[in-house]
Amino acid sequence: MSDKNQATYAIGELAKEFDITTRSIRFYEDQGLLTPRRKGQTRIYNQRDRVRLKLILRGKRLGFSLAETGRLFELYDADKTSVTQLKTIMDLIANKKNDLNQQLEDIQAVLIELTGLENNCQQALAAIDK
């Protein structure tokens, strides 16, 4: 689609491009993360919506919640100088890294426990086989 020389997109086009469902896109709209124009029942997404959708999906892959992503969008909209936004992003990154490091430690501890349990089972099986 094209509208006033600015690229526009139908919901199906964005869904196909990003390999997600139209339902997901409507959900992001319901959460206030996307704001397409309406022409009757048809949603018309602009380049800003497309970029935001890309950022939403990237944030999800990095473990950011939709609320965190929405907060960043709000900061960006309110403060184009982006000092506050960059500091907030850095805080979110630091928190996410801490969370991931904790998860990594937890996973390593569970793996050690499972290895110990596995060894005990192997020893018990060896004792039974004798």
From TrEMBL:
SMART domains: HTH_MERR (SM00422). Pfam families: MerR_1. Residues 8-75 form the HTH merR-type domain. CDD domains: HTH_GnyR. It comes from the Bacteria. Residues 90-120 form a coiled coil. InterPro entries: DNA-bd_dom_put_sf, MerR-type_HTH_dom, MerR_fam. One of its GO terms (molecular function) is DNA binding. Gene3D superfamilies: 1.10.1660.10. Keywords: Coiled coil, DNA-binding. PANTHER family: HTH-TYPE TRANSCRIPTIONAL REGULATOR YFMP (PTHR30204:SF58), REDOX-CYCLING DRUG-SENSING TRANSCRIPTIONAL ACTIVATOR SOXR (PTHR30204). This is DNA-binding transcriptional regulator, MerR family. It comes from Colwellia chukchiensis.
